[in-house]
Amino acid sequence: MTLLIKNGLLVDPSQKLHDTCDILLKNGVVAEIGKDIKAADAQLIDATGQIVLPGIIDMHTHLREPGLEAKEDIASGTRAAAMGGITRIACMANTYPVVDKAIIVRGLKEQITKTALVHVEVIGAVTKGLEGKELAEMGDMAFAGAIAFSDDGHYVSDSRIFRAALEYASTFDKIIIVHDEDNTLTSGGYMHEGAVSTRLGIPGLPSVSEDIAVSRDTLLAEYSNARLHVAHVASAGALEIIRQAKKRGVKVTAEATIHHLTLTDNAVEGYNTAAKIAPPLRDIAHRDALRAALKDGTIDIIVTDHSPHAFEEKDVEFRYAPNGFAGLETSVGVIFTDLYHTGVLSIDEIVEKMSCAPARLFNIDAGSLKLGKPADVTIINPNAEWAVESSTFCTKGKATPFEGKHCKGKATWTIVAGRVVMSNGRLNE
Ligand SMILES: [Zn+2]
Q1: pTM for the full model?
Q2: Is position 305 annotated as part of the catalytic site?
C-alpha cells in the first residue's frame, strides 16, 4: 500500500522538523518528505489543518490477556489504541498466569501476531508471580523478546531481591520499570491523603510512600549502575528525588500519566470509583509539580496506564473497587484540551514525550519519520471537538474519570506499518 499524506503540519522532533509538507509512505516505510510530492498510485490523505507525527507509543498499558479477558483482551485493547491514535503499546505482566516465563512471552507474542491491530511490546515480570520473593526468568524472557521488566501494581519491597533484579537486568541492558509506593505506608488506604480524603472519610495514601520507594530504588540503581524507569510518578517529593538523581548521572527515567497531569483528588468527590487509581490522583500542588517536571525533563515520557476493569467490578463501594480505568481512547483528546490548548505544552513537546522519547528510551525502531523508518504515523486534528462517551469505547473497560468531558483535539488517522488501521473514527481491520 502506498499512502500520500498531503499538506499536514509535519512535527517530528527526532529530525527537528516542524513544517507544512507532504509525506509518502511506501512498502511500510517513510519513502519521501517534501513539498508537493506526486505519486500516481498512492491513496491520498488530505491532512490540511492537521498535525502529522510519528505514531504515538504508550509504554504502560494493561491488556489483561491471558486470563482476565472479562476486563480486556489483545483484540479489544489494540482496537482502543488504534481509535486513540496510538500505534504501539507495551503491556504489563500482571495477567493470569503472570508473564514470568519465556514460554508465556512466546505464547503472548503469538497471540499478538494473530489478533493485535497495533504493535504490542511485552513487558515481563521482575519476580515470579509478582510476589517479590524470587527473581523471574528475566534472561530467558529477554531472549524471547520481552522489552523490559516490571512487577507493576506491586512494589518489590525486599531491597536485596530488588538489587539483584537491577543487576541481573543490567547484564543484558534491560530496564526495570517500578511501581513505587512503599506498601507498609499505603496498606489500608484508598485515595490521596489530604483535605479531600479527610472530608470524605476515606483512609489516605500518603505521598511520602512514593518518595521513600523512589529514593530506595534510585539509590540502588546508582549503586548498581543499572537502568531504572519509574512508572506513573504522582508525588512532588518523588520528582525532586528523580531530578537530583538525574543530575548525579543515575540512569533513571520517569513517566507521568495523562490523568496525574490533568486531574486532582477532587475527581474522587462523590466517591467516584472511576477516579480510583494507584498511585492516587493527588492535590493541585503535586499536579503542578508534575507539569513542571515534564517541562524540565525530569519526566521523560507520557503514558496512559490504561487499566480496564469489567463494569461490575467498578460498580461497588469505593474501597472495594479495583484501581485503574481505561485511557487509550481519551489520551489525545485530554492532552490537547488540557495541556496543548492551555499553553502548557507545545506540539513538539507532546510528540517528544509521547513518541520520540519512548522509542529512544526502550530502544524501539519507531518514534521518527526519517526516511526509511517504519511507517507508523498518527494524524491529529487539533481543533476537532467531541465529548467523551464511554459507551462508544472499543475497550471493555468503560470506567473513566473523563466521562462527559468536552475535548478539543482528536486522532483522525492511525497508520501502522504503512497500513491505515483507523480513519476518522472508523476501524479498518
Ligand atoms: Zn502501576
Answers
A1: 0.98
A2: yes
